[in-house]
Amino acid sequence: QVQLVESGGGLVQAGGSLKLSCAASGRTFSMYAMGWFRQAPGKEREFVSVIRWSGSTYSAASVKGRFTISRDNAKNTVYLQMNSLKPEDTAVYYCALSTTTRVPVRPEEYEYWGQGTQVTVSS
Questions:
Q1: 40 vs 100, higher pLDDT
Q2: H or E element: which one contains 107?
Q3: Strands 18-25, 3-7: parallel, antiparallel or unpaired by DSSP?
Q4: Do the beta carbons of residue 32 and residue 53 sit within 8 Å?
Q5: Those residues with Cβ within 8 angstroms of residue 101's Cβ, 6 or more apart along the chain or in another chain
Q6: SS (H, E, C) 51-94
Q7: How far apart are CA 14 and CA 12, in angstroms?
Q8: Which residues make Cβ contacts (< 8 Å) with residue 44, sequence separation at least 6?
Q9: Which residues contact 77 (CB under 8 A, 6 or more apart)?
Q10: Is the dihedral of CA 8, 69, 76, 102 positive or negative?
Q11: CB 3.0-4.6 Å disulfide test: which of 63, 108, 121, 122 passes with 67?
């Protein structure tokens, strides 16, 4: 059984930064892709970034250049550094684990999910 626990969300002004963390347990963390998604009220869950077991990353166009995903396999933790935040970044942010060998960008490609952490960006 995999458990994912996010932390680091909060309230920040536009232009500010936050760093989200996601601690994983229950699997050999380093072998899998870890992704971040977000969901705003009334909207579908949206892909943000993914980091594969190899360390390669892929991010949505809306966050490219502002958000950076990284992982520390020794700590079984994946991070999302968010800079230059905008009000439209406001959402609940979820981390997820995928066992696929592809680059998973759809929610259905992920088998395990965290409970989410709220990020609110004020204008």
A1: 40
A2: none
A3: antiparallel
A4: yes
A5: none
A6: ECCCCCEEECCCCCCCEEEEEEHHHCEEEEEECCCCHHHCEEEE
A7: 7
A8: none
A9: 21, 22, 23, 24, 71
A10: positive
A11: 63
Fill in the amino acid letter for 81.
Q
- Matching residue, tokens 């998973």: 104
pLDDT at site 11: 98
Per-residue pLDDT reduced to its tens digit, 44-103: 999 999 999 889 999 999 999 999 999 998 999 999 999 999 999 999 999 999 998 789
For the CA atoms of the chain, what is the radius of gyration?
A: 13
Give the tokens for residue 56: 């390669």
Amino acid in the structure at residue 48? V
Task: Answer for the pair 9, 117: CB distance below 8 angstroms, yes or no.
Answer: yes
Q: How far is CA 103 from the centre of its chain?
A: 14
Helix and strand tally (H, E) in the chain?
0, 11
Residues paired with residue 7 on neighbouring β-strands, in sequence order: 21
Buried (b) or exposed (e) across 31-51, using 16+ Cβ within 10 A?
ebbbbbbbeeeeeebebbbbb
